[in-house]
Specification:
82% of the residues lie in helices and 0% in strands. It is built from 3 helices and no strands.
Length: 89
Amino acid sequence: MAVDTVISLIFGALSILITTGCIIYSAIRGGEISDRVSVLMLMSVVMAVTGLGFGIHSFHMVEGDNNAKRVTVILSLIALFLLLILYLI
């Protein structure tokens, strides 16, 4: 498997986990969030964009399976879509 694919998979999964954790924390606190949650959401955006970049770049590498590369790009796009929905709400 290509190294870029693994990095993209880790960043995409962490982005989704951090976003989900922030949503749960905000629901528990009744909508009141601290500055730490805002920083975590910013980190989630950076990881999703970086994961998408690594995922797209992994298509240029010969080694690895194309299905795994597609999954990492889709995972990063899901993370960005989730963050966009939260931004619009």
